[in-house]
Amino acid sequence: MDEQVLRSLIKWPNVPHCFGWLALDRRGQWRMRDEFSQQNSLPGNVIQHTALNEFIARNYACDIRGRYFFQNGPQRVFITLDATPWIVRIIPTDTETRLLTQCQSSFTPQGALSDESGNIYITGLVNQTVYKDVNQTSASEEFLKKECISAALLHDHDLDFFTDLATLREEACSFGGSWKWHGETLPLDPIHSSELSQHFGFIKKPNE
């Protein structure tokens, strides 16, 4: 969380929250959704501005209810999630292959899930900022950086890469099996997409 954002929260602590205007799509893109987009169930416009994307990523957090938001100075902009709070890419490097989120943070896998549409979700640990409303006198004490278990949708451009790592078996509604990551064998289990948010404690469409 940016220091200037924390300072603005102290200076203007009661700015109303914003809902419905920002979304995270299935490819890890932030989308601005104006009133027309919201009223007509449109995805909104992809934010192309590099500095704004980086600002959103640095100030991306969740509350203890599982609502994800962008702390835009003193205003909290709650985010509509098309899939999961995190979208990951498989990034090969000279030393080892990494999983990176849309915020360019590392995701440490513990397993994977496959849903009825063939989507792959990586499950594991990610460092994220969590807001806890404890009526602290200092706003900086309300935001805690901690390692949390979460689920991240694998970007569809990396599905072939994942298939090369996996050993699959057909299940009733999807696929199960295992996959290799850094020399370890990790589980791949079936899940229905409707179960994800409850299982991992996030809210896809926050409201007041």
Explain how this protein is built:
There is one protein chain. The chain has helices at 3-11, 35-39, 50-58, 159-165, 196-200; strands at residues 18-24, 30-32, 45-46, 60-63, 68-72, 75-81, 86-91, 98-101, 107-114, 120-131, 143-154, 166-170, 175-181, 184-190. It is an alpha+beta fold and 208 residues long. The protein has one domain (3-200). Strands 1, 2, 3, 4, 5, 6, 7, 8, 9, 10, 11, 12, 13 and 14 form a 14-stranded mixed β-sheet that branches. The longest helix is centred in the N-terminal third of the chain and has 9 residues, at 3-11. The radius of gyration is 18 Å and the shape is globular.
Topology:
Blueprint: H1 3-11, E1 18-24, E2 30-32, H2 35-39, E3 45-46, H3 50-58, E4 60-63, E5 68-72, E6 75-81, E7 86-91, E8 98-101, E9 107-114, E10 120-131, E11 143-154, H4 159-165, E12 166-170, E13 175-181, E14 184-190, H5 196-200
Low-confidence stretches: none
- What is the SS-derived class? alpha+beta
β-sheet strand percentage = 35-45%
Radius of gyration: 18 Å
Task: Give me the number of helical elements.
Answer: 5
* Total strand segments: 14
Number of domains: 1
| Mean pLDDT value | 92
Q: Sketch the topology as an H/E string, one letter per element.
A: HEEHEHEEEEEEEEHEEEH
How far apart the termini lie comes to 23 Å
Q: What is the helical fraction, as a range of percent?
A: 10-25%
Shape field: globular
Largest sheet: 14 strands, mixed
